[in-house]
Specification:
Blueprint: H1 7-20, E1 25-30, E2 46-50, E3 56-61, E4 65-72, E5 75-82, E6 86-91, E7 97-99, H2 143-156
Antiparallel strand pairs: 1-2, 1-6, 3-4, 4-5, 6-7
């Protein structure tokens, strides 16, 4: 029997920690062919998603997939993200959270991601940039808060193997 990764359990735990403390949980996601997000909001094959209760509908965080509905520019979209593609989860307000090493892509068109794990560099200082288009029903957040978040996220995220 194949052992289940700890990653989905850590994601659910940090999501719960964020919500229990009144923080807004966000996930940074590597976008590939299997990822279902509005492509116009993807930058450098990544997207940051607000997964708070207020910003999502029917959120399901399983061991393989994270699925929910969210609004982008007022239009509802079904979002489907493989847990393996989640790069980080953090609280928007203070940047506390956890970053994960890049895992091999699930499709055969991957270049570096398909290399054997020992030959792949691990990104340790990932910069999480929250685009103005992250999922949120309240898009009136100030740029100053976003800049503070980016700075805080860089200093608190930790890579877990």
């Amino acid at each position: 029997m194949q052992e289940i990764s700890t990653k989905p359990y850590l994601l659910r735990a940090l999501y719960e920690w964020c919500t229990d403390n009144g923080f807004t949980p966000h996930i940074a996601v590597r976008v590939d062919a299997a990822t279902r997000v509005p492509r116009q909001f993807v930058r450098n094959d990544e997207i940051v998603l607000n997964i708070s209760f207020e910003a999502t509908s029917q959120l399901q965080m399983g061991n393989e997939w994270i699925e929910f509905s969210a609004r982008f520019s007022g239009k509802s979209h079904k979002i489907e993200v493989q847990v393996a593609n989640v790069l980080a989860i953090y609280a928007r307000e203070n940047g506390q959270g956890m970053a994960f090493p890049v895992e091999p892509a699930s499709h055969s068109g991957a270049d570096l991601a398909s290399a054997p794990i020992g030959s792949r560099p691990v990104e340790r200082d990932r910069q999480i940039e929250e685009p103005a288009s992250s999922t949120s029903l309240d898009e009136s957040e100030s740029n100053a808060d976003d800049d503070a978040l980016k700075s805080a996220a860089r200093s608190h995220l930790k890579v877990v193997k």
